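Anyone? Bumping this.
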Amino acid sequence: MPSPHDLDPSTPAIRFEGVEKRFGDNVVLQGLDFEVARGDRVTLIGPSGSGKTTILRLVMTLEEANEGYIFIDGEPLTHTREGGKRVALKERHRNEMRKRIGMVFQQFNLFPNMTVMENLIEAPVHVLGLSKADAVERGRELLARVGLVGKEDAHPSSLSGGQQQRVAIARALAMDPEILLLDEVTSALDPEIVGEVLEILRDVARTTDITMLIVTHEMHFARDVSNRVMMFDGGRVIEQGDPETIFTAPTQERTKSFLSAVLGA
Amino acid sequence: MSWNWDHVWDSLPFLLEGFVQVTLLVTVVSSAIAAVLGLLIAIARRTAPAPIAALLTFVVNFIRMTPIVVQLVFAYFAFLALDALTVGILVFGVHYATYMAEVYRAGIDSVPKGQWEATTALSMSRSRTWRAVIMPQAIRATLPALGNYVISMFKDTPFLIAITVADMVSNALEYGGDHFRYVEVIVLAGVLFLIASYPTSLAIRKLEERIAFTT
């Protein structure tokens, strides 16, 4: 498997090609095409039910598209085209692709039966094959980075929501992902601790070149961190551009009314 | 009704012999079989291809819906090559495995979907996911119910009398028949059951507390 740095830099980190996703009769995404360049920080905005989270879940292979193709670094993620037909790729291939992608969830999803350090080293040891000592050392560095030194042996249930989410961010970073998916990571938190989590993510954005795909209702955070904003409605991108343009001078009526509703609140 | 303590002391060694050699032995060995086999059934029903899972469900329901005495007698005469005690241990193990499989299933279902999604996001293998994430959480949720089935099995062991295995109760009946005194020995047998099962239920509660996910 080539390192991402050997690839042609113009190859997008993520590419959607005619992606359609249905839940029963409900079409969530339809004919969706978009690209995310390597190192880009893209925020998806739009009303709830517009399919933003579904996009992240498709990239993480938690959901499977009904039509179309998704490429990571130019390689097909779950389906490929063979002789004009759409062919599902094997679980083994999907698992290799997954290793490049990390995700932080709204509900943290830490493993409650493990300590903080065990959460951090589980996948590095058993998936990446790091030695336990190396994984622990890296775990400590990450804990320092998210401001939780001394919490190694704590169980998630003894931590606050903000602390749990910081551990979850550290756990995703421990896998050294090329792509990080952030799914409403502050929505389950009390307003006064949203800032501490966003500060850590700003720091990650500043100090790494990880490609980020973000779904958030925190418009200030979207503005600070992302270099591109995509407005979704009815399962398609209706407008996109740099955050400055989208937030100050949106062209679409739908974007204007969405932003005034969100920012006005 | 008169009460004679002499019969209590007189029959105690005989009852204890049946208790240790049969009641306790069957409970311990059959519980181990039921706990492991039940887990395998629960995982198989979730992961096996649909036809196999359906067949398994049918077999599990069949065993659950018929009395253990019927199963004991059937197995005793169907597998004549095995001695009665071995038949008893196997039947108790399989019978309770079907109950424990349901408990495990409920425990596995109680693990939130987000836990599975986190293992996918971390590219964890299926086997590692089951072993390190799902089972530890599922078993914590199921421990009280599993423990109750062990106690329930313990109290079912007198059914072994149907296949000539002499447990504590059957020894009590034998003593009663020999001396024409049933009251003391049956009360004694009941008390011995109580003495064994009550501390067991306390121990299960302790274990539950010990494995709770707190610091």
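Late reply, but here is one note on the structure posted above: The interface with chain A takes residues 112, 114-115, 117-118, 120-125, 128, 132-133, 136-137, 140, 213-215 of chain B (CB under 8 Å).
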